Amino acid sequence: MAILRIEGAEIITMAGEVRVESGWTLEAVDGAISYVGPADELQPAGEPDELIDGSGCLLLPGLINAHTHAAMTLFRGAADDMPLDPWLREKIWPVEARLSEDDIYWGTMLGIAEMVRAGVTCFNDMYHQPRVGTRAAEDAGMRMCPSGVLLGILPTAEDMLADAIEFTREYAGREDCCIHPMLAPHAPYTCPREMLERVIAAALDLGVPIHIHLAETDENVRWAMANYGRRPVQAMDEVGLFDAQVLAAHCVHLDAWDIEIVTERAVGVAHCPGSNLKLASGMAPAHALLQAGALVGLGTDGCGSNNNLDLLEEARLAALIAKVREDDPTAVAAGAALRMATIGGAHALHLGETIGSLEAGKRCDCILVDLQAPHLQPHHSLVSHLVYAAQPGDVCTTIVDGRVLMRDRELLTIDLDETIARVSESAARLFD
Ligand SMILES: [Zn+2]
User: How far is CA 6 from the centre of its chain?
Assistant: First the structure.
């Protein structure tokens, strides 16, 4: 039995109302939270193997990156300030065709290092060769929802699908690890209907969610109207996509009916404001989705279109953009943004029973944020500070499944020097 105890921190549990508790303690046994509450009411499970003094810090659930392509750290800064379509076709896909296993492993590891340092404890990843990225996550002790990207327009589509299903089967339903697989048809415009139908059948058979890009750009809407006679969300509803659990990334271009479908069919949405701004995709109706009761989380998207994996920044952008989009400074308040970054993301990934809040019975994924920095003074509202003022460097401790991955800003499971050296080698070769 391994006991972890965190004492002395201010705590935001994200269970129910967003508020700060003082004088509370958290205890976890074998990676599961066993107690969160007043320190003097704790009935200790025993002597803690790991005792963390959280004085001067804020303890909260780990941040959840609901949509990314972690290995695309390799592409950071390689091609900026371009429209999405030529960016993918001319700059990204030709280089991706040459990626080796080592490139993907170390690119993913760099992404994980960046995320652990920024307080992310779970990431939803769509990429090539999912076994390789998953190995990086397992080596680092990170929680991951991996999926092999399916591009139905490629001649290798059949092999990709067979391999993705086989990979998913290896992890589906396993409760002994932090890997939660999905199936990932890239997008409606890259996956023919026949392939989507097979993916849906496989997802229902395996009991795993589907991860897809949906309604990201105006062009996506025009394509769906031309090919399905409907807007993207309505087209996918008609295909039967939402019979399975779905995490739809972006959802920028939604009308009122789309929002109704997304909400009623419990489609998880990964709102990616940084990527949407950089690629000029538009401003997603996050406020309307939240008002409707949709399951909305936040994603960074890949480093080619962001260019970082900082989920606090996404929370801040989500709050700021909603105000401009709605012409209303009360839209997506700090608490709503923090909810999207934590429990909202968990629900969007269909992992709301497992992670996303600090409650007895859930897995112990949490972070400590150091409150001493000048930009976090004075302490009028710690929720406001997290969303509007905090930086990744304020995160000092990151814990996944009860295991400390970073303590006092020191990475314990990742060799950062080696990771940077390996990624530099890969980048030099790939972009020669
Ligand atoms: Zn993406």
Answer: 25
Between the CA of 145 and the centroid of ligand 1 the distance, in Å, is: 14
- The strand order across the sheet containing 295-298 reads 184-185, 143-150, 120-127, 63-68, 295-298, 268-271, 246-250, 210-214
| Distance in Å, CA 212 to ligand 1 centroid | 8
Q: Tell me the CA–centroid distance for residue 150 and ligand 1, in Å.
A: 13
Between the CA of 300 and the centroid of ligand 1 the distance, in Å, is: 8
pLDDT tens, position by position, 69-96: 999 999 999 989 988 888 888 989 899 9
| Cα–ligand 1 centroid distance for 287 (angstroms) | 21
Q: How far is the CA of 301 from the centre of ligand 1 (A)?
A: 5
Q: What is the mean pLDDT of residues 32-45?
A: 97
Ligand 1 centre to CA of 39 (Å) is 42
CATH architecture of residue range(s) 3-60+364-411: Roll (2.30)
Residue 320 CA, ligand 1 centroid: distance in Å: 21
pTM of the model: 0.98
Helix (H) or strand (E) run with residue 24 in it: strand 24-29
Element (H, E) at 424: helix 416-430
* Distance of CA 299 from the midpoint of ligand 1 (Å): 9
Determine the 3-state secondary structure of 122 from DSSP: strand
Q: What is the mean pLDDT of the chain?
A: 97
Question: What is the 269 CA–ligand 1 centroid distance (Å)?
Answer: 12
Residue 25's pLDDT is 98
Distance 302 CA to ligand 1 centre (A): 6
Distance from the CA of 182 to the center of ligand 1, in angstroms?
14
Q: pLDDT band for position 175 (50/70/90)?
A: confident
Q: What's the fold here for domain 63-348? A: TIM Barrel (3.20.20)
Q: How far is 218 from 283, CA to CA, in rounded Å?
A: 11
196-238 pLDDT, tens digit per residue, is 999 999 999 999 999 999 999 999 999 999 999 999 999 999 9
Hey, what amino acid is at 84? L
- Please state, as a whole number, how many other Cβ atoms lie within 10 Å of the Cβ of residue 17: 7
Question: According to the model, what pLDDT value does residue 176 have?
Answer: 86
Domain ranges of the chain: 3-60+364-411, 63-348
Residues ≥6 apart with Cβ < 8 Å to 49: 2, 3, 4
Distance 226 CA to ligand 1 centre (A): 23
